Amino acid sequence: MISKDNIFEGPPEQKPGPASDEALLEPLSELAELREESPLRIGVHVSSAGHIYESVDRAVIYGCDCMQIFSRSPRSWRAKKIAEDEAAEFCKRRQHAGIEPVVVHIPYLINLCSPDPQLHSKSTDEFAADLRRAALLEANYLVSHVGSHRGAGEAVGLSQISTALREILTQDRSDVLVLLENTAGSANSLGHSFQQLQAIIEAVDMPDRLGICFDTAHAFEAGYDLATREGLEKTLADLSHWVGIEHLKVIHANDSKTALNSHSDRHEHIGRGQIGLEGFRNIVNHPFLRGLPFILETPLDEQGGYEVDLRVLRSLRKRT
Ligand SMILES: [Zn+2]
Ligand SMILES: [Zn+2]
Q1: Which ligand has an atom closest to residue 250 CA?
Q2: CATH code of the domain containing 204
Q3: How far, in Å, from the CA of 209 to the mean position of ligand 1?
Q4: What's the rounded Cα separation, in Å, for the pair 81 and 86?
Q5: Closest ligand by atom to 296 CA
Q6: What is the Cα–Cα distance from 260 to 309, expressed in whole angstroms?
Q7: Under DSSP, is residue 44 helix (H, G, I), strand (E, B) or coil?
Q8: Which pLDDT band, with edges at 50, 70 and 90, does 38 fall under?
Q9: CA angle 32, 33, 37 (to 5 degrees)
Q10: For 150-172, how does the pLDDT look when each residue is reduced to its tens digit (9 = 90+)?
């Protein structure tokens, strides 16, 4: 789950602020126009380095309809406080840009499944703090991986996270929805099947505060074959059966570098991985999915960055 080699979920180390490179800006302004034509709600995970409100400016440069950020460093327990005036500026800029929804991703160190009482308790406190930060930013969703049972077994892990979420959500007064993200299922990580996600939702028993975020790369790596139409239908039938399609709120649109059922989390540019262009054409046009926000967590490498994937994903959407 919390794979070190997954560079895509970290705040991409990409050009913060307005890009000075003209060659980059030109295709981006084209993207903003494409947004006008396309009913697809699409955005990217942007860096929140500097003042947190600058993340909105980065999303605007990409012509995003929606966005995702970390509200603090994803690999450290230390969190810089978000000042109220910074949060207000974030909300102002976001509103002005018409960005909807705003998704906050939980840091990687948090592990609500942990069988270690100390780590479990620390994770619970930090998760609650992140939920308050998300509320301060008026974010719609807080996305979290399920976590790792560290060898204690699935039943222990699911029980640990359910207890923690129930405690956190009972005490929280905000209306931020927590979304459990499906994972690739590496090592002892949980949340790689819809059945596991449903077990948590059922145990927490607060359906209006808990939903799911569907990561296409993670699903493929966990064994859901999104490369074919039949595979997509089967996956969505499984999702409907266990979780209920109404609990699905956000799609993380990422292709996968690794094979079906590899349990290895490596994101790839849309259409260049194992899910492929046809797979994504089916995904963005599926009636169950087409109205949902799509967030890219694709790599920045020699093939390009988000500008490439935004263009590809928008071009796959059929006009209605
Ligand atoms: Zn994630
Ligand atoms: Zn993801």
Answers
A1: 2
A2: 3.20.20.150
A3: 18
A4: 10
A5: 2
A6: 21
A7: strand
A8: low
A9: 115
A10: 999 999 999 999 999 999 999 99
Which are the catalytic amino acids? 75, 105, 108, 145, 181, 215, 218, 252, 265, 267, 297
Distance 152 CA to ligand 1 centre (A): 23
Q: What is the number of the ligand closest to the CA of 297?
A: 2
CA 22 to centroid of ligand 2, rounded, Å: 30
- Centroid of ligand 2 to alpha carbon of 154 (angstroms): 21
The answer to whether residue 198 is domain-embedded is yes
User: Does the residue 117 lie in any domain?
Assistant: yes
Q: Is there a domain that residue 33 lies in?
A: no
> What string of DSSP letters covers 171-188?
H--S-PEEEEEP----TT
3 band by pLDDT with thresholds 50, 70 and 90:
very low
Residue 2 token pair: 């919390």
**Distance between CA atoms of residues 87 and 206, nearest Å:** 28
pLDDT range class, residue 32, cuts 50, 70, 90: low
**pLDDT in the model for residue 8:** 36
Q: Which residues of 68-80 are buried (b: 16+ CB within 10 A; e: fewer)?
A: bbbbbbbeeeeee
The residue-averaged pLDDT of 63-69 equals 97
Task: Report pLDDT digits (tens) over 84-93.
Answer: 999 999 999 9
Which range of residues forms the domain containing residue 249?
39-316
Tell me, in angstroms, the distance from the centre of ligand 1 to residue 182's CA: 8
State yes or no: pLDDT of 31 exceeds 70. no
